[in-house]
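Budget justification, computational time. The allocation requested in the original proposal was used primarily to generate structure tokens for proteins on the priority list. As evidence of use, we reproduce two of the resulting records. The first is shown immediately below.
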Amino acid sequence: MGSCKVACLLLITAGLGGVISQSQICVGNVGVHNFPDPVNCNGYIVCVDETSIPMTCNEGLIFDVNILKCNYPDISVCLPNLLVTTTTTQTVPSTTTTGTTASTTTTQAVPSTTTTTTIATAAPSRPIEEPTCPDRGLHFYPHISDCQRYYKCLYGKLYVMSCPLSLLWNQDIKFCDFRWNVACRNN
């Protein structure tokens, strides 16, 4: 398994409103890896070491960030849809005037501004038992109840992954492995 430290950080930045070019995605990459296009759900970038090759999914498919492959849109999450939306509301209190025959006083309150930021995420809300993802790097953890599944943490984002049929997650080698090589206590 290769590391995607720089490229993944750039992709996360892009998903959160930063600007990134396709040529920057593969900076620091070693080996061959697929990365989502930061602006196009149908596109992805194949990094061969530090060389980027833009690709497009077949018609009707999008690049799924959970499995890093093209997949059907109704069961996929694409990077451009992981947007940050910011809503700003400003409250201006009403002006009050009090008066008597001798003088008039006008009081106006200072407007207040409230900013709310909402971040859409790929994973649903998680139970407490699931791992907390570190903000940096790529990390793997065993699933809390299913030995055929595991968690992939990519720069603070938790993804639930599944091993191919008849294989189980082996935390020692951080890879799916044959059942007889895995000490599984959950299945």
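The second record produced under the same allocation is shown here.
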Amino acid sequence: MRTNFTQCAADYAKANASIIALYGWTGDVVQIPKNETTQISTWGCHQFCGSGNDWYPWSQVSNTITAWVLPVGGIILQAPFVSNAFWETVFSLSRWLGSPMASLAYIFWNIKVSGKCALLVDLAVPYDRKITSPGTNFGSIRDSFYLLMTMNQFTMRPHVRQRKEAEGLLRVALFSKDLRLLRPGKSPEGRITRASFDLAPGQFGVWNPGPGSDTYTPRPDIDMEPEGQLNKLRQDLAQKMRDGRKRGVVPVFISTLWFLFALALSVQSAFGYMGVNAQAHDLALGCLLSWLPVLILSSIVDRNPVAADATRKELNELVDRVRQALMDDTIRELYLRCIIDPDQHHDMQKWVERISKACPMLDDFFAHFAGQARKRWHYGAAHPILSDIEGAYIAEQGRDWLADEYEARNKLVLGKPKGLDWLDPRELWQVLSGVLIVAGSCLGAFVLSYYTPTVGLGCRSGGYTVFGTMAFILLSLEIVSWWVFDASKPRLERLGKDMRSMTLAHPSLLAREKSIAIWYARVHVDAGRYVSNTARSLRQGLRSILTALVSQNYANGVDQGLKAKWAHWQDMSAQSKLDYCFFKPVEMVNAVWLVYVAMAQTSGAYRNCDCMSSLWGGHGGYVMH
């Protein structure tokens, strides 16, 4: 039965002393005068007023919709969704709404990397130099950093990003001007292609030189692209991506500004007159959602390309052509001849040899588009390269570091690679910024609802607390899992080397380590066999049921589909399994909770005896009419 608190308040004000003594509130009140004629206990509210909801009238609902729901919905619709990808859109939206702290942290980190690229490009020439042509050295290095900034938005294959040579391959592809390329349709020739790579436990490949690996036959010049073709490819690709990026940003940016302007007008219209609880709670709802414009505007700065998949293929093609060139003996020899300085020649020869040996395993470099916090645990390729080249050359040279282009490019290619998989503590500033923005929004909403009579923790303030707490827990668990699976690997490798050295020096420790390893392997195998047998039994049972209920062909088709999905599940990494089993479902739940909180406040679902009594904490227990 629907409750009418307005009529109930009028009836209670006319009640006699016996009714007030029976239903009235006799406990303490917070920040308001005690008045038995206007304050009723929660039990008394249920008995005297009813247990249903007092839904808002349409005038109040429409006011909230026009003031908050429509402007915020318009802003959400300006998010950088991907066309023709329904489930990716669902997962992205649930991530942005359900885990805003983590989303803002990733987006801010990408913006910081983009700003670092722009800063290093600006420092490449004197501040008063006028750039008149895109074909200058400055234009070339600007295109290289722009491509690096674009590459930062794509994930790398696991077998790629865990190799230090992958960073070297990207350096050559981005900063080298002397490397010649093979013409399309030509395959690399030489000892790299004749060698074999035997897979070993814990390694990606063991180098086994093929026969005649010390000599090679120079290939004809007609098989190779002319000098400077790599630089031209970079310039053309950068201009193409830059044009597409511009077409994607400006209309959305203007549209978002329009929605923000409409939101400001709605705020002024809705809260020109204060004093009613409904207006205070509507303002709290606006505070709760105030991080959304920040997230959408930030995602526009970190804008995705018009066609992300096409961009990924073009970047992969560029890297693959460089990879093929480094595998060719003739091209590699010609490239090393361009290094005049003896010290640099020696270092470059060792580094290029190391990269070329790893090139057969560095194919299909970039995997998925991960901009705007779409992919969890995405660190990107740009920051490790930027940090290294800044420390190796740019920081020492300062402004106009591109004055000696030959030396600068050699230094950018060489560097001191740490690899593409490591955690920089400076990223915690972006994490802190995301936490402060969302926590500040939730705190503002919490304070308004908590201190609006009845003072205390109730459905509204408690709902805001649940949302903010879940967002923080998701961020914390994401950081912990990132550290466990990715960022701690270099330290764990060093620790493993130290432990192996210690066990070799002490035979008793070596025997104990072997016994522990054997026990762990046995447990792992037994557990895997048990899970596989259980899955097989369930699949066979389902097939028998479907055979009896439908048909044998249908049951076989379902069985084959489940078998393929189980094989795919077994091939997934521990991170991916954790993502699908925990993070995505919890983010969806938190996003649905946010939508529920907004709809409940809009419709008046919180206007009932329990919610208006603020029963979640210790200060409530009564309703004030």
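A brief technical remark on that second record: Confidence is low (pLDDT under 50) at residues 196-213.
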